[in-house]
Amino acid sequence: MVSIQAIRTANNSIASQSPTAVFAGATSGIGLAAIEALLQSTTSSKIYIIGRSSAKFAPTLAKLQDLNPSAQLVFIEAQVSLLREVERVCAIIRGQEAVLDLLWLSQGGLSLAGHEVTPEGITANYAIMQYSRTLFMYKLMPLLNKSADARIISILAAGEEGAVNTTDIGLSDPKNDGFFSAMRQGVTMMSLVMRELSLENPSVSFIHTNPGMVSTAVHHKLAETMTGYLAPLSWLLKWGLIPVVYFFGWTAEEAGQVGLYELTNERHSASSGKNFFRLSENAENAGASSILSKYIEDGTQRRVWEHTMEIYEKVLAQ
Ligand SMILES: NC(=O)c1ccc[n+]([C@@H]2O[C@H](COP(=O)([O-])OP(=O)(O)OC[C@H]3O[C@@H](n4cnc5c(N)ncnc54)[C@H](OP(=O)(O)O)[C@@H]3O)[C@@H](O)[C@H]2O)c1
């Protein structure tokens, strides 16, 4: 197990790096902490931050700039649960950059609001957790392939993979969109699409990581979705689980350091001889998954990828 002290030491030794990076889902929590860690550890980095509101983020952006005046920070306002918005943002970045070194993806959260659908007709939790993240990878791949050490990190829950409903991969039927089953399926799909892309892009490192229990706003936001008959459970979450995570979980700052370590240390570079990693909260291997091995062998990995491409063709052609 890599200790947090060892992780901090490793992160403090990357001062010679000046990566160009894109961060989505980093306006708060683990992602924001990872940007802070990157700014504290490097000089002259260029960081694109994609978020829902430039006005709301302006004070935080000013604080980030103060952390490292040599860095170039570019905020792009976009609603990344909409695939056409992701496509627009990626076109802007492709128009401005020739090379991209780091892609950070942590947009999303937890919701018990029931089955919701985006204006583009996609199951809402999947739009943000799954299709949005994969589209960023796919559309920015030409730039990542030009980097000497490109890394993509998706902050979700490697190690928690489970069964995929192969007859309704997108969980468009509300009956299939249960909280736990949808979460397991989304996590599995993340591992499968990252592995599929890793085969086609051997010089890019694909990292699906599980940050563990981290004290961020994500659990408070989950509590807000627990209304009606779930309201008593929301009380339990607020006064039971959230304090436990606060006292016994990781801080966002620590999780951000772990994320930066996974993005920059040699062990997780494509030059290590491997370019697809499933990591646990301490940056170690999340362990073999028999269900993933089965899905790789029986063609489910390919079907999940083809399903994802079909969603893009349908939505982006409109
Ligand atoms: N914290 C944990 O214990 C934990 C554990 C395992 C996995 N994770 C996963 O890690 C990821 C990051 O979590 P976190 O703890 O850093 O949470 P967080 O502080 O709530 O950050 C979530 C980020 O995603 C963005 N986001 C959420 N819903 C969105 C939507 N519908 N449209 C656009 N942007 C949206 C937020 O933007 P705004 O600022 O605009 O809201 C924010 O930038 C999440 O996917 C979470 O499920 C977290």
From TrEMBL:
Alphabetical keyword list: Oxidoreductase
UniProt name for this protein: Oxidoreductase lepF
Coiled coil: none
GO molecular function terms noted in the UniProt entry: oxidoreductase activity
Database matches in Pfam families: adh_short
InterPro entries per record: NAD(P)-bd_dom_sf, SDR_fam, Sec_Metab_Biosynth_Oxidored
PANTHER family reported for this sequence: ALCOHOL DEHYDROGENASE-LIKE C-TERMINAL DOMAIN-CONTAINING PROTEIN (PTHR47534:SF3), YALI0E05731P (PTHR47534)
Lineage top rank: taxon: Eukaryota
Keyword set includes Oxidoreductase: yes
Transmembrane segments: none
